[in-house]
Every structure is written in C-alpha cells, then in structure tokens.
Design goal:
With 259 residues, this protein is an alpha+beta fold. The chain is built from 9 helices and 4 strands, in the order ααααααββββααα.
C-alpha cells in the first residue's frame, strides 16, 4: 500500500491521477449535458424537473454524484500542484506538446482554464444544487393525460405542504408534484451577467477539454498512431465543440428565445 501511495505522489503517478480523474469528469460532463437537454423541451419544465428528482433521489446516482464531487476537488488540487511544481522545477509541463514541437495555448494555460472552471462550478452549485437541497424552492404539479400523453394541467403547489416528490398514476391520468428547479434555471438565465459568465466558462471548458482529453490518453500511452486520429477527432469535435456549445446554448436560449 505504501508503494501505491509513493507512486501516486510521484511525477508519473500524479499524471496518471490527472488523466483518470479527467476522463471520469469527461464522462460526467456528457451525462450532465444529456440531462440538461431536457430544458429545451416545451413541457413547462416537467422532463427537466423529473430528471432533477431522479439525479438526487436514486441511490446509485447519489453515490456516483459524491464520487464526482470528490474527483473534481482531487483533479483541481492535483492540477494546481502540477502547475506550481512545473513552474518551480522545470519548463516541461505534464500536458505535453503538439506534434510540431510547439506548445498549444490551452496546454500552457490549463491552470488558468481550470481556475475559471472551478470558480464556475462553485457558483453554479451554490446557485442550483444548494437551493434544490436546502431552500424552499417553488413546487409545481403536472397532470398528464395518459391516453394522449399530453399535459392537461400545470400549477404551482404550496411550498409549505411539500415534503417529497409525489408520483401518482391512474388509468387515465398521471400526477407529478416536484420541486420546480426549472423555474430557478429560467430565472437565472434571464440575467445577462450570469449568462455572460456561463458562456465564458463554456469557452474555458472548450479549451480545457480540447487539450485535456487528448493529453489523458497520451499520459496512459494509448495515443498511438492507430488511435491518434480517432482520439483527436473525439476530443476536438465532440468535447471541445459540441459539448460546450450545447451547454452555452441553454442560457442563450432562455435569455433570447424563450419568453
């Protein structure tokens, strides 16, 4: 066990730790993005609110969530340590260099990009995660006609009477009563300053993932010629463009399109 911790504290071990936690967080980003796409549904927040309940009440997901929080802190702390150590010890950074020998801008600024993202995560969780768990958030009731799969009634529910999510079904109707996180998101994304901050954070995420995803495979020795084009394409097209663009589209949608 002592040898294991010695390895983790070594230069190679810390690079592997950075790579593994980074890839896990990439997976989390994909899952989080797919769930947040429910915001675009024209159902007055029903699908998104149900998704929020599932993510906070289903036991296996709750366990994974706390593991994810730990990995965010571990990834950030290890990243800052590597940046500081590399500045003091030598100019060769863990992120590596491009094929042509030139270090990319994102590679040289991973510490800055990571700092922006960490600040964003703290503010974002403080605004939504904390309020969802620890404040008296507005509550909404959805009544769906099961025969037509259409909403027939949506109304606010008294907050003081709400204790836990309610899901009732009959042969004709489905009644769901949940915390209205959708309303909180809509309200936050009507604030131009918050939207601007959100979009800037997504630009930082784009650069961070553009380099970090490929660097993780390079650290683990997987980025060989046979796989390099595939890894680079996934890292650039999917993680550096599609994922951040979809995240950024959410606040822009509420600010400029949804009324």
């Amino acid at each position: 066990m002592s040898k294991f911790f010695e390895f983790l504290n070594s230069s190679v071990g810390r690079k592997w730790l950075m790579a593994l936690t980074g890839l896990f967080l990439c997976l989390f980003v994909v899952v989080h993005m797919s769930g947040n796409l429910q915001l675009f549904k024209n159902d007055q927040g029903k699908a998104f609110n149900q998704y929020a309940v599932f993510m906070t009440t289903f036991p296996p997901i709750k366990v994974v969530s706390y593991v994810n929080y730990f990995f965010i802190l571990l990834h950030a702390a290890n990243g800052f340590y590597l940046v500081l150590r590399n500045r003091k010890a030598r100019p060769v950074k863990y992120e590596g260099k491009k094929a042509g020998g030139e270090t990319s801008w994102s590679s040289k600024n991973m510490g800055l990009l990571g700092s922006i993202l960490l600040v964003f995560i703290v503010i974002h969780m403080g605004h939504f995660w904390r309020e969802f768990h620890f404040t008296s958030m507005p509550v909404k009731q959805y009544v769906t006609d099961m025969t037509t799969d259409s909403l027939v009634d949506v109304k606010a529910f008294p907050v003081e009477e709400f204790k836990k999510p309610i899901h009732l079904t009959s042969q004709q109707y489905e009644i769901i009563i949940v915390k209205d996180l959708y309303a909180e998101v809509e309200s936050a994304f009507k604030n131009p300053l918050y939207v601007a901050f959100y979009v800037i954070a997504m630009i930082a995420l784009s650069y961070h993932l553009a380099h970090g995803f490929q660097s993780a495979f390079q650290t683990m020795g997987i980025r060989r010629k046979n796989y390099e084009k595939i890894i680079k394409s996934i890292g650039t097209i999917f993680f550096a463009i599609i994922i951040p663009a979809l995240f950024a589209a959410m606040p822009l949608y509420f600010l400029f399109i949804k009324h």
